[in-house]
Write a structure and sequence with these properties.
CATH architecture: 2-Layer Sandwich
Strand order of the largest sheet: 1-10-9-2-8
Order of helices and strands: EHEEEHHEEEHEHEEH
Shape: globular
Distance between the termini: 61 Å
Number of helices: 6
CATH class: Alpha Beta
Structural class: alpha+beta
CATH superfamily: DNA ligase/mRNA capping enzyme
Length: 244
């Protein structure tokens, strides 16, 4: 079984990338787009094959059962009913040659800092692949309901590319109740055509991401504080060496 890496998602400020796609597919300017929350976690992939054991992968490789990737095995144990639903679907509906891959983010305590996703680690799914083909969001949301999948929050559906690009990112995360945590800002948004997956001639997919400027500013401040702390520690060591 070959490992399949989830495609890179381009930033909305890469105008040349967008222009090349709209030239190739002019309809991209006037179709429906789904806007979902960008999760600040770590990429995870579940690989289901008919009548075979589940395989789990990080962004870059298939994991062995001995690898403790952010406690993923404990999280999957809590999701065993969902895992059974997925395996049953694959056993009944897919051919022996086909795999069913779910892509998600594992998030929560001690995975990434900056956004609060609750007290327990969890996996939130955002995409799927049947065989070697990504499915459009419209089909993915069918699987969400059919398999009872936990998914990334959906902020909205919009009806043109410009409306998607202009969608505001300075908003709280909806993984936890935004009324209870109004200052818990999200990392950003992901933009996808709703009814079709578009590729260019070199295999890049037309998915876009847009970071929350407030989130980026918080990350910059934290980095400066960390750098400042390192400098203070170094000066303290030098001072101790000097006086001794």
């Amino acid at each position: 079984m070959c490992f399949v890496k989830y495609p890179e998602i381009e930033n909305t400020y890469r105008q040349k990338f967008i222009d090349k796609f709209t030239t190739l597919y002019p309809e991209l300017t006037e179709i429906s787009y789904i806007i979902t929350e960008k999760i600040h976690g770590s990429n995870i992939q579940l690989i289901f094959r008919p009548h075979k054991p589940l395989k789990v992968a990080s962004r870059n490789k298939i994991l062995s059962e001995k690898e403790d990737f952010f406690g993923v095995w404990d999280v999957l144990e809590e999701m065993k009913d969902i895992i059974c639903n997925c395996q049953r679907y694959v056993d009944e509906e897919q051919t022996e040659e086909n795999s069913f891959r779910l892509f998600g983010e594992i998030c929560g305590p001690k995975i990434q800092k900056g956004v609060y996703y609750g007290e327990e680690r969890k996996i939130l799914f955002f995409d799927a692949m049947i065989g070697d083909q990504l499915i459009p969001p419209e089909d993915f949301f069918f699987f969400q309901h059919y398999l009872d999948l936990p998914v990334v929050p959906c902020f909205d559906t919009v009806y043109s590319l410009q409306e998607a690009l202009d969608f505001p990112t300075e908003r709280p995360s909806e993984v936890v109740d935004p009324k209870e945590y109004p200052d818990n800002i999200c990392e950003g948004i992901v933009i996808k055509p709703y009814q079709r997956v578009y590729f260019n001639k070199v295999g890049q997919v037309f998915y876009l991401k847009k970071k929350n400027e407030k989130f980026k500013e918080r990350q910059r401040v934290k980095k400066k504080l960390q750098e400042g702390s390192s400098e203070v520690i170094q000066l303290n060591l030098e001072f101790r060496n000097y006086i001794t």
